[in-house]
Specification:
The complex is a heterodimer of chains A (about 850) and B (about 100).
Chain A: E1 4-6, E2 11-13, E3 19-20, H1 26-49, H2 51-78, E4 86-96, E5 99-107, H3 109-132, H4 139-158, H5 162-180, H6 187-219, E6 239-249, E7 266-271, H7 278-285, H8 295-298, E8 300-310, E9 313-317, E10 321-325, E11 332-333, E12 336-337, H9 338-353, H10 362-365, H11 371-380, H12 385-392, H13 394-397, H14 401-422, H15 428-448, H16 452-480, H17 527-541, H18 547-561, H19 568-597, H20 604-609, H21 615-630, H22 638-641, H23 646-655, H24 668-693, H25 696-709, H26 711-718, H27 723-794, H28 802-822
Parallel strand pairs in A: 2-6, 3-4
Antiparallel strand pairs in A: 1-7, 4-5, 6-7, 6-8, 8-9, 8-10, 11-12
Chain B: H1 8-28, H2 32-58, H3 62-92
Helix pairs in contact in B: 1-2, 2-3
Classes of the chains: A alpha+beta (about 850), B mainly alpha (about 100).
Chain lengths: ~850, ~100
């Protein structure tokens, strides 16, 4: 079908024309090749040629993929705004009825941004890993998994359909499981991997349910007879009829008029009907007629072009026809709008992958994996997949304000709730984990309130500063590693993270390299780590001139003014939760900074053992810290520059077609006020952290007094509100009870049936044996017995006496003679 | 009754008598040598038949030729049989055929 058509069109659609992007397939393929080689041959390569080869391969493919991604991104940038969609159709996969599913990669502004995040931050973390994992025996396995992860993530990001996204979605879940349980000899780590996997299954279930709702609602009602044989082609199974509408792309980028080639208005073909392709879905859901009505969503008539295809060739062209649509927005299931249900399903999937309430519990445990994995998968990329999905489906979520409200409120609640848990954690990685959960909540707030670009912008900045924080913590753990082998502690750990932190113990374990109470005063010993960590802390806390400020402040501002939720009050509630969360974020991040790098003078043992990490690790930290600052440039607010932020303008075509109500107009004064408030709140959080954690000698007493006063509250928060225990008491116990019941059923009923079948078989065999014994063997023995018996009797005739034989001969001859004489006919 | 009246029937009667005597000898005597003698009688009965038929029916010498061969064969047979009898005697110290029936079981 021609993607671009010339001529007049009465419809307007949200999709624009596409351009070929022949290189896109390389971005997932290269890491896959690396994963395959390292996975299959890695062990031998490492034995034979050493770890250098593994590093070269693992980092090399990522570097190549990053180069391809950058080249494709620039190819994208060179296109005029509104046409920035590269499509690379690799293989046709499934063709059923009017559904056509291809292995197609698509890069638009959104997936281009994600590609850059995944490949570039992924590459940096690969480089960092060469230093961090250097002493691990399973080095090759680690890089194989890491490459496989990048492959899956790129399938998720670049796939142009739900199915490809789901493939990647499951793939990253698998890699997450494999890497959390990377040191699988440790029971706790293996369990953490399983926990992540199982919690994600719940979300994946939601994803599939949402997809089925959507697919059913697109196909079940609209076309009754779409699978009928195509006229003129008989019952040729490979032929199918495709219905489409010629529409004009609604390009709304800053008033630049849509320019078609040769001055004619350019149109695109919008395919109708059930689909799993994002582009086809977006095309039909954003379809508007000249009066601004949306026939597919609200109901109405559409003049449909129809064409029959066999394979890729058009065979028969049928006459145009007009179809009447009932309207997707009016469809109800159990009295609930189907769009709301579909969005809710997708959001359940997103909240599993992106660790939102109620499915966030796996992410803190996921810190059992190697620290670079925590940085790449559990902070920068995989956990943002849910945010990406909601942003990708902006046109769908925008149709259901209820679903958007759910997204925003759940995001805000998570942002606040996780931040409170982060307040009193002592494990440095746990602090960062809860911080990640909290920050993901902010991203969901961004995409939930309809400010999609800010959600993605926060995703981008968070990827940089959180990766920097995680890698900084990894560097610290790397330095603190010696405490595991401290005299008096024989801990047979597997690696840097071998020591599973005991959250529920208030006293520090002196052999735990991740416990911040064992640190303190590392600033002078690890200067690069310290400074980069500080910069990233400033960024996440939301102080101006670091990237976090611009993304978070914009989210808060948009939440305050949003009109896209079911009630204006919901926006205010979200804003309140997020603002409180921002204060807590600033506090706990600087608490972790003080406890790790300041707090007290370094101990003798620290001075002796702790040293700055190798160059492969530190320069990655520097690169990420630089990014954490430089990315600010993409999001300088309109208040400062007078124009919309660069990133907003860049992403606008992706989100322009979403049917949003928009944001309330706010005066400059209000905007300045909110901005200053959030700066003040961040500074306040930092100040409180300084007050209690700046110096052990001055502040410890103050802290102890406060803890004394709020002891019960502290205990509850310190124990993470007992949510894990709650899940253990409800979900886990329920599951175990169910499992026990099923086990009983299995043992008593199923095994009984199986045993009965076995018993039946045995009886049958016994019967068969008897039949064999008595009938078959009997017949055989009977024959033998007859032969033996007759032989016994006949042998008497053999007398051995010549005379009797002679008699016999004579008698026989005489008998024959007589017969021959009297009965001549007998012998003839 | 002259010799000229002697015809085929006469020879056949003699031959039948010889055969009957031979068979009787073989059937009744238990001495191995006597058995051999009975066998010789049977063979000679056959010889007589051959010669008689050749003379009265065929008119050529085919029967005589058979008779000569049979005499030759009988001599050979007698030689072999007597050797066996000698061997039997050496083993059993008797040539009673009933006493030597050890192969029957």
């Amino acid at each position: 079908m021609p993607e671009t058509l010339h001529g007049a069109a009465e419809f307007v659609t949200g999709i624009g024309p596409t351009h070929p992007g022949a290189l896109l397939y390389l971005i997932p393929l290269l890491p896959l090749i690396g994963a395959a080689i390292n996975g299959i041959l890695g062990y031998f390569l490492q034995q034979r040629f050493g770890k250098k080869v593994i590093s070269f391969l693992g980092v090399g493919v990522l570097l190549a993929a990053a180069v391809v991604a950058v080249v494709s991104f620039f190819q994208l940038l060179a296109l005029p705004s509104g046409e920035r969609t590269l499509v690379n159709k690799v293989l046709p996969m499934i063709s059923i009825g009017s559904l056509q599913l291809d292995l197609t990669f698509m890069m638009d502004e959104l997936s281009g941004t994600m590609s850059l995040i995944v490949t570039i931050i992924g590459m940096l973390i690969h480089v960092y890993s060469t230093g961090y994992m250097h002493d691990d025996e399973s080095y090759w396995r680690y890089f194989s998994y890491l490459n496989l992860f990048v492959f899956s993530m790129m399938m998720l990001v670049l796939g142009d359909s739900f199915l490809l996204m789901f493939f990647g979605w499951e793939g990253v879940g698998l890699c997450s499981y494999l890497l959390i349980g990377f040191w699988y000899q440790d029971q706790a780590k293996a369990t953490a991997g399983m926990k992540a996997f199982i919690v994600n299954r719940v979300g994946d279930f939601g994803f599939v349910v949402g997809l089925l709702f959507l697919f059913w609602s697109l196909g079940g009602v609209w076309f009754g007879a779409q699978y009928a044989p195509v006229h003129g082609l008989g019952s040729d199974a490979s032929a199918r009829e495709v219905r489409y509408v010629v529409a004009r792309p609604a390009h709304a980028s800053h008033g630049t008029a849509w320019r078609g080639d040769h001055g004619t208005p350019t149109t695109v073909a919008v395919r109708l009907g059930p689909t799993v392709s994002f582009r086809e879905l977006k095309g039909q859901l954003t379809l508007k007629n000249a009066a601004g009505k949306r026939p597919i969503v609200d109901g109405g008539e559409v003049a449909v072009h129809s064409r029959a295809e066999r394979g890729s060739a058009a065979v028969v062209k049928t006459e145009p026809l007009t179809l009447t649509y009932g309207g997707l927005a009016n469809m109800l299931v159990w009295g609930i709008p189907v769009l709301f249900l579909a969005c809710l399903g997708f959001f359940l999937g997103a909240s599993g992958k992106s660790a939102q309430i109620p499915l966030y519990v796996w992410l803190p445990d996921a810190m059992a994996g190697p620290t670079p994995v925590s940085a790449l998968i559990h902070a920068a990329t995989m956990v943002t997949a849910g945010v990406y999905m909601v942003a990708r489906l902006n046109f769908l979520f925008a149709l259901s304000p209820g679903a958007m409200t759910v997204v925003a409120v759940v995001g805000a609640a998570t942002a606040f709730f996780a931040a409170t848990i982060g307040l009193f954690q002592y494990d440095i990685k746990k602090v960062l984990a809860y911080s990640t959960v909290s920050q993901l909540g902010y991203m969901f707030v961004g995409v939930g309130i309809g400010a999609y670009w800010v959600g993605i912008f926060h995703l981008l900045t968070h990827a940089a500063f959180k990766a920097c924080l995680f890698l900084g913590s990894g560097s610290v753990i790397h330095g603190m590693h010696y405490v595991q082998h401290h005299p008096g502690h024989d801990d047979p750990g597997h690696g840097h993270d071998a020591h599973e932190p005991r959250d529920l113990r208030l006293e520090p374990d002196p052999s735990d390299p991740q416990d911040m109470r064992n640190m303190g005063g590392l600033a002078g010993l690890m200067p690069v780590t310290r400074w980069t960590y500080l910069i990233a802390c400033i960024a996440i806390a939301g102080l101006p001139f670091a990237s976090g400020f611009y993304s978070k402040d914009e989210i808060l501002f948009k939440a305050f003014t949003t009109g896209n939720l079911v009630a204006p009050l919901a926006g205010k509630l979200v804003w309140t939760l997020c603002t409180l969360g921002a204060a807590l974020t600033a506090f706990y991040m600087f608490r972790s900074y003080y406890l790790t790098f300041r707090y007290r003078a370094p101990s003798k043992a620290h001075e002796e053992h702790v040293h700055e990490s190798p160059r492969s690790m530190t320069w990655v930290l520097v690169a990420l810290a630089t990014l954490a600052v430089v990315l600010s440039l993409l999001g300088l607010p309109k208040l400062w520059t007078g124009t919309d932020p660069l990133f907003e303008r860049f992403l606008e075509p992706v989100f322009a077609a979403a049917a949003l109500k928009g944001f309330a107009h706010a005066s400059h004064g209000l905007e300045w006020g909110l901005m200053l408030l959030s700066v003040a709140i961040a500074a306040g959080g930092i100040g409180v952290a300084w007050l209690f954690y700046a110096d052990e000698q001055k502040t410890a007493a103050r802290l102890a007094a406060l803890k004394e006063r709020f002891a019960p509250l502290h205990r509850v928060v310190f124990n993470k509100y007992y949510v894990d225990e709650l899940y253990a008491a409800t979900v886990l116990r329920g599951t175990h009870g169910l499992a026990r019941m099923l086990a009983w059923f299995d043992r008593e009923i199923i095994d009984g049936l199986v045993n009965f079948c076995g018993w039946c078989g045995r009886v049958g065999a016994w019967l068969n044996g008897k039949i064999d014994e008595y009938f078959v063997d009997g017949a055989v023995n009977l024959v033998a017995d007859i032969v033996i018996g007759s032989g016994q009797r006949l042998k008497r005739m053999q007398t051995g006496r010549i005379n009797s034989y002679a008699y016999g001969v004579a008698v026989g001859v005489i008998a024959i003679a007589l017969v021959a004489y009297f009965l001549p006919g007998v012998l003839k | 009754m002259s010799l000229a009246h002697i015809g085929l029937h006469h020879y056949l009667v003699v031959s039948a008598l010889l055969l009957g005597l031979g068979v009787l000898t073989v059937a009744t005597r238990r001495n191995a040598v006597a058995l051999l003698m009975g066998v010789e009688l049977i063979l000679n009965a056959a010889n007589l038949n051959f010669v008689a038929f050749a003379h009265f029916v065929e008119g050529k010498v085919g029967g005589q030729a058979f008779a000569v061969f049979i005499i030759l064969l009988a001599a050979a047979e007698a030689a072999v049989a007597l050797a066996i009898v000698l061997a039997v005697f050496r083993g059993f110290r008797t040539i009673d055929t009933n006493a030597t029936a050890t192969l029957k079981e």
